[in-house]
Every structure is written in C-alpha cells, then in structure tokens.
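We keep the chain:
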Amino acid sequence: MSAARIDPLHDTAAPSPTREHRLIAMRKEQNNFSELEQWLDENHVTEVECLVPDLTGVARGKILPRAKFTEDRGMRLPEAVVAMGVTGEFPTAGPYYDVISSTDRDMHLRPDPSTVRIVPWASDPTAQVIHDCFDREGKLIPFAPRSVLRRVCDLYAAEGWDPVVAPELEFYLVGRNTDPDIPLKPPIGRSGRSETSRQAYSIDAVNEFDPLFEDVFKYCELMKLNVDTLIHEIGAGQMEINFFHDHPLGLADEVFFFKRTVREAALRHDMYATFMAKPIAGEPGSAMHVHQSIVDIASGQNIFSNPDGTPSQAFHWYIGGLQKYIPAAMALFAPYVNSYRRLVRSNAAPINIQWGTDNRTVGIRSPVASAAARRVENRVIGADANPYAAIAATMACGYLGIKNRIEPTPECKGDAYLGDFQLPRSLGEALAQLRAEKDLAAVLGESFVTVYTEVKEVEHAEFMKVISPWEREHLLLHV
C-alpha cells in the first residue's frame, strides 16, 4: 500500500443522512481501515502514534499499542486540545467558550489512512497517522486546522477546480541552547567551525552537515515524503527544502511531518532545527513560500492560462484576491510576535502586497513558467505558520478574488522595497484586521476565526508579561 495514495476518510455528511448514504460511508470506512490494517501488518507495527495537529502545528494525541488502535479505530480527546496556544494556555472566558463550551466536551478522532507513515527513528516498529476531529453528530470540528483546509478545498471542488500547491520551507540549524536568555548561534559543522558569514546556495556549506541531511533524506524516503530540493539559504545555518506540487491537504500533512522529522534528526546530531520566523538577530527570517495554481477538473487545464498561453482573467483575479485579503490574513501567515521581526525592508522578506513576474522583492510573485505551469507564489507566509491554516488562508484569498472578480493593481516591475509598508506591523494589529474581515470568516468559518483570534490574544498577553533584555539595557538607568 502506498501511504500517499489511499483516499482519505472525509465524513462531511449531514447530521441526518439517508440510510443509503450511511451504508456507503460505512463501506468506504471499512475498506479504508482494511487497507490500513494491511499496511500495519506488512510493516510489523507494534505501536501507533495517533496525531492531531493543533492551532500551532504541534502534534497532539496518544500513543497506542497496535491491538488497542485496531480495536478502538480512533480515540477521544477534549476539543480544547486543538485550540490552545503555544504556551499551553487557552482562553477561560469570552467568545471562545461560546464555540468550544465550558463543559470541556470530547471530540471523536478518526484516522485518515492516507497519512499513515512509519516512524523511522523509533526503536520498535511504530506507525504515525494523522486523525481528523469530529463532534458526536459526525461533523468536522470547525476550528481544527485540518478541518479548515478541508473546508476550503471543498469550496474549490464545488466550482469544479482542483487546487495545486507547492511549499518552500526555510529553517535554521542552530547549536544546542538550553537557556532561552542566550542568543542562538549557528551549529558547528564537520570542519569544527560555525558559519560566520552568509553562504547562499553554497554546496560546501550544506556539506558541512552531511551526516544530518543523510538522516533527513533517509527518514523522508522511509516516510514517503515528496521532498524535492535542498539548498543553503542566505542566513548563516539557514536551509530550505522544497516539496513537489500536489493537493493542498496532502502537502500540509507533509510539511507537518517534515517539521517533526528534521527536528528529531537535528537532535540526534547535537543541534536544533528551528522554524521560528526570526531566530537570530541580524540574519534573514525564515519563510514558507507557497506556489499555487488551479486545474479545471473537467478539462485538466490550468485555469491561470488562456488557450493561447497568455495569463487568464482568473490568474489576475486570484492575485487581486491575495492583494485585498492578505493584510487581514496576516495573523494566520505571521502567527506570533516574533513573526513580525522577519518582515523587514530589503531583508529577503516582503513588506507589501505588490505583485510582479520573476520579482523576489514583491509579496506576490509569478515565477517564469510555461502556460501549463503558470502559478502564483505567496511570499508573505512565515515558516512558523501552521501549514493547514496558512495554506487554507492563502487559498481563501485567491478564491475570493476569483469569485468577486477583484482586479489587481498594476504589476510592479521595479524594487518593491522602495514602496510603503502595506502589511500589519504587529500581531495585535493583524488580529484586529482578521476579526474585522467578514469575507475571510465566511470562507474559513466564523468559529475558526473566533477561536483562533482568542487563542492568539492569550499568547500575546503572555508575551507582554516578559521583560526583554532590550528594555533592561536601554531603560533601566536612562528613563
């Protein structure tokens, strides 16, 4: 069984489906579990990691013995497990509770057989499988990140469209650092030295970490992750991995798995891998650029190109949607206070929503490509973003652009860094814009936006309790 090819379990039936529909769903579920059980048998699995991505992208869940997993075919967790902040805190009052309920009710988790992978670093044969979250009536939990992406993909399918994405994910390798008050530094490579200068696209700089990346690629191969190219990015110790283009849900799963994988591999080589947007002062931040296109299901053609190969109206409307709604979606693309340190003029990150062809200074780039491969690259998203929420949000922006026929501004053919800032400058400002944008809430789901913004407010409040070294250095004796 190919882990990437089984049809995912996706129960979006109405609360009272007909008997026929219920029987069809039961047969599909039975077939999916039969294939999953066969895969577990073939790989001699003794334990199963039952995973649920939360709002931060952290893997929550349980580890079950194989027999227990087979017997239960799922598990239950409190709904709040997928709706808490990166500090582990969650709102204790307000609109959050109108959605999640103060009774702390359970959600019912069902494994998606298409996501099953081996855990290559485990000592015993162990599988990992991502679960979807349902309520007691069988409806998807609307604020679970995977549910949000499914919701947006369903909107595309209803139009006869098959969305295609390809993420490019940047990250830093840093030396082990157990004291959060000490700044991070690049790790020591095979030469016994740390990088002290920027080594963009340097093969030798990547080779400094050959033993680590040999493990990363071995793990990815065993997990059937469709990773493509590895390069050294601009920053000292900064790398980038590219993924082959595919359906959004499957690729969000792969980004989720890859983050776990590279962190684990780095630890085994006495270093950390971090997807913080701005981990090291004075170095460029890390992004998750997402390339996007749409295939018409009936014809198999890229709707971003006309039959004569020229850019289509849909291509321009998609860009118009990104331009209109990216500022309101920034809390999803830049989800932490640290995220906004990355968005600095002339520092390999966009500051506005201008668009251009083969222009890396803009927020929305159209790479040079054939008519069949014409696509749009959202360069605003940070590496720290939840892949499910971020991909759902960028697709939502483009979807609204096409549906509302939003015309883009004229193409930027110069240096976009010379223009004005057009993006929120802080998490607080971004949250206010997200709350105010009703069109995005309609596409992503009002309950998701409510829960997400409430959780981020709690995180922001926690951050504001911390006194930074800058404040002690400059304010202690001078104000």
